Amino acid sequence: MTAVVEEKTAIEFKGRMLMMTVLQLKNLDANVLHQQVSQRLEDAAQWLQQAPVVIDVSPELDSDPVALMAAVDTLRSLGVNLVALARSENIDADTASMLGLGTLSLAGGRDVPRRAEPAPATDDGAADSKPAAQQVETMVIDQPVRSGQQVYSRGDLIVLAPVSTGAEIMADGNIHVYSNLRGRALAGVRGDTSARIFCQQLNAELVSIAGHYRVAEDLPESYRNRPVHLYMQGEAMHFTALN
């Protein structure tokens, strides 16, 4: 009898939402970068110090390869976890390869409105008149989101229980937490700046709307442990107490 040898798969592709920090460089001077980045890292939470970082070179800068290489070397010397360069007209794959980095498109992470999905056809073949954006289902979670868990909704996300420290909740639309928010909440993850976050108790590690974020240390003291509504106005995140 011939023995059957079970072949073990060496790899497995898994889909997962991963959060990266975008570091936009508005100056390539190595000394300026060293001073400002080292200060920000010193003040940052531990998880942020270890977060994967994508470099986004400001379009106004002349992307001189030598200056860019010096900037990248400076960031690496500070322990910044660089993983990629944001693609642009001035940044191509060859430049990224020279720096030992990949390239990544930020088109979905900038201030781009959420695209509506096509409306389904009705029995008579005509498109449903209901706005497509309303047809994205809202996800409702009625159990606590515990440390290490990650929840993602393509529409709005409603959590009826606490979100623990170390947990992460994300939504393309709005986020509602009808309890204590201690973990990370990321609304408008595909670039919808009109997305909002509502919670009954704000004690978050991080809150983010369309890539604009505040870490725990940056949250206004007057809104901690209170019912809060968060939204964007321009580039600024605003906090409003909920009565």
Describe this structure in words.
By secondary structure, the protein is α/β, with parallel strands linked by helices. It has helices at 30-43, 46-49, 65-77, 93-98; strands at residues 21-25, 53-57, 82-86, 102-104, 139-141, 150-153, 157-159, 168-171, 175-181, 184-187, 197-202, 206-209, 212-215, 228-233, 236-241. Strands 5-7-9-11-14-15 form a 6-stranded mixed β-sheet, with no helix packed on it. A hairpin with a 2-residue loop joins strand 14 (228-233) and strand 15 (236-241). The longest helix is centred in the N-terminal third of the chain and has 14 residues, at 30-43.
Short description:
The protein is α/β, with parallel strands linked by helices and 243 residues long. It contains four helices and 15 strands. Mean pLDDT is 80; it is low at 108-134.
Q: In terms of per-residue confidence, which ranges show pLDDT below 50 for 5 or more consecutive residues? A: 108-134
Strand percent estimate: 25-35%
Can you give the helix content as a percent range?
10-25%
Order of helices and strands: EHHEHEHEEEEEEEEEEEE
Total of helices? 4
Biggest sheet features: 6 strands, mixed
| Global structural class | alpha/beta
Defining key terms:
alpha/beta; 15% helix
Give the helix/strand layout.
Blueprint: E1 21-25, H1 30-43, H2 46-49, E2 53-57, H3 65-77, E3 82-86, H4 93-98, E4 102-104, E5 139-141, E6 150-153, E7 157-159, E8 168-171, E9 175-181, E10 184-187, E11 197-202, E12 206-209, E13 212-215, E14 228-233, E15 236-241
Parallel strand pairs: 1-2, 2-3, 3-4, 5-7, 6-8, 7-9, 8-10, 9-11, 10-12
Antiparallel strand pairs: 11-14, 12-13, 14-15
